[in-house]
Amino acid sequence: NAGVTQTPKFQVLKTGQSMTLQCAQDMNHEYMSWYRQDPGMGLRLIHYSVGAGITDQGEVPNGYNVSRSTTEDFPLRLLSAAPSQTSVYFCASRRARGPLMNTEAFFGQGTRLTVV
Amino acid sequence: AQSVTQPDIHITVSEGASLELRCNYSYGATPYLFWYVQSPGQGLQLLLKYFSGDTLVQGIKGFEAEFKRSQSSFNLRKPSVHWSDAAEYFCAVGVLAGNNRKLIWGLGTSLAVNP
């Protein structure tokens, strides 16, 4: 059972470049989310999804797009990278329905992104 | 406003000493409460959680936490710290948001362990 898998683990981008951070989970979780982690600021929610075809903004959505075409995958797209997006990005998933809903979030290993 | 406060940004303890990490929250209803640990370069791993029932909950790696409603607290404890416990610890609160719950995160407490 792989859990939540994020790729790549490390990435360096030039300002203005685009890229997609991949996130996949094999636990059939309805809820998936993307966070960024910056020193002294904890975890901040970027976007989340409560199921395939449904996405919504978190607290820091600007500069990021998401889509959820399948239950398993929740990619995060940076259309035009900026130095302010240098951060560590975490994908997480959890149950959103049934008796185990909201019981635990499972995290990927993170993607360390540097924008120069 | 809903919030989670971890008052201690950084704590240093000696190996074998006891540990208590503080977490206070602001939320009008009964929350879901979580403690996560993040080892360097790793993702977050759940240590323990509280939803209802016994207010003293046991977690992995010898950790426990106690929910005190009157103090809006959910402090994490360990009686004897090991060097491998050095990590970042996050408290989170699950609050109702429509038909689901959203997680509100504390800013974390960094734990260093002296040999």
Describe the structure.
In chain A, the strands form two sheets. In chain A, strands 2, 4, 5, 6, 9, 10 and 11 form a seven-stranded mixed sheet that branches. Chain A is 0% helix and 50% strand. Chain A is mostly beta strands. Chain A has no helices and eleven strands. In chain A, a hairpin with a 2-residue loop joins β5 and β6. In chain B, the strands form three sheets. In chain B, strands 2, 5, 6, 10, 11 and 12 form a six-stranded mixed sheet that branches. Chain B has a four-stranded antiparallel sheet with strand order 3-9-8-7, with no helix packed on it. In chain B, β10 (87-97) and β11 form a beta hairpin. The interface between A and B is medium-sized, with 20 and 22 residues.
Short description:
The complex is a heterodimer of chains A (116) and B (115). Chain A is 0% helix and 50% strand.
Number of strands of chain A: 11
Largest interface: A-B, 20 and 22 residues
Head-to-tail CA distance between termini of chain A: 36 Å
- β-strand amount of chain B: over 45%
How would the blueprint of this fold be written?
The complex is a heterodimer of chains A (116) and B (115).
Chain A: E1 4-7, E2 10-13, E3 19-25, E4 31-38, E5 42-51, E6 54-57, E7 64-66, E8 76-78, E9 87-94, E10 106-107, E11 111-115
Parallel strand pairs in A: 2-11
Antiparallel strand pairs in A: 1-3, 3-8, 4-5, 4-9, 5-6, 7-8, 9-10, 9-11
Chain B: E1 3-5, E2 10-14, E3 19-21, E4 24-26, E5 32-38, E6 44-50, E7 56-58, E8 64-68, E9 73-78, E10 87-97, E11 100-105, E12 109-114
Parallel strand pairs in B: 2-12
Antiparallel strand pairs in B: 1-4, 3-9, 5-6, 5-10, 7-8, 8-9, 10-11, 10-12
